[in-house]
Amino acid sequence: MSLDVDPPAPPELAAVDPNEYEDAEVSGGEYRRDELGSFLREGAWEEAFAEWAAGSDMDEEDWRIALDLDLVSRFDFFWDDFADRVGYHAPGLPEDWKERDLHPDLDSWGTVSAINAGLTELGQIVCETLKAEYIDWEADFDAPDDLPDFDE
Predict the structure, then answer these.
(1) What are phi and psi of 55, to 5 degrees?
(2) pLDDT at 41
(3) Nearest in space to 22 (alpha carbons), one of 118, 111, 93, 90
(4) Which of 54, 35, 41, 55 lies closest to 8, judged by CA?
(5) Fewer C-beta neighbours within 10 Å, C or N terminus of the chain?
(6) What region does 145 belong to: left with phi over 0, alpha with psi -120 to 50, or beta?
(7) Vertex 132 angle, CA 126 and 136, to 5°
(8) In this structure, what DSSP letter does residue 105 have?
(9) pLDDT over 80 (residue 127)
(10) In sequence order, what E strands does 70-113 have?
(11) In what residue span(s) does the DUF7992 domain sit (predicted)?
C-alpha cells in the first residue's frame, strides 16, 4: 500500500530532555538537535517521508486526521551518544481519545492504531535516514575496558 500525499514541513525540534518521554531512555546530555534539525530541513525529512509514504499502511483519511491534530509537529529527534544512534519520540493519540473527543472523524480504535503505528514507523525511517545518509560524526562514548568480548 502507499500514501500519495505531500510531505509536511519537518518538525521544529524542542529542547526537551528525552528522558521525560515514556518511550525513551537516553544517557548523556548533548542531543545535537540543531544539527539534526538542519539535516531535516536540508532534505532528510522529505527523503524519509517519501520512503515511508511509499510503504505506509495509513490511508489518506488517517493522514488527514493526523495533520488536523498537528501531530507531525510534535515529533522529536535527538542524538543518543551512548547508543550511537538517532533517537526519536513519535507523537500519538492517547488511550482516552474517545472521552476527549479529539476529532470528529476519529471514531475507531483501528484508526487510532493506524495513526499511532504509522507515525512510529515514520519516526523510525527518519532516524535511519539521518544516521545512514546525513550524520558523519562518531559517538563520543567510550566503552569501559572490562566489558566482555562476545566475538570469541
Answers:
(1) -125, 10
(2) 96
(3) 90
(4) 41
(5) C
(6) alpha
(7) 115
(8) T
(9) yes
(10) 76-80, 85-89
(11) 3-151
Question: Which set of grid coordinates corresponds to residue 89?
Answer: 519520540
80: left (phi over 0), alpha (psi -120 to 50) or beta: beta
Residue 111 phi/psi, 5-degree rounding, is -65, -45
Contact 81, 30 (CB under 8 A): yes
63-117 tens-digit pLDDT:
999 999 999 999 999 888 878 889 898 999 999 999 999 999 999 999 999 999 9
H helices present in the chain, as ranges: 33-39, 45-55, 60-68, 97-100, 109-129
pLDDT greater than 70 at residue 23: no
For residue 139, what is the DSSP state? P
User: What predicted TM-score, i.e. pTM, was given to this entire model?
Assistant: 0.84
Nearest 5°: phi and psi at 89?
A: -125, 120
- At 80, the amino acid letter reads D
Q: How far apart are CA 140 and CA 10, in angstroms?
A: 27
Q: Which pLDDT score, from 0 to 100, does residue 15 have?
A: 76
Distance from chain centroid for Cα 66: 14
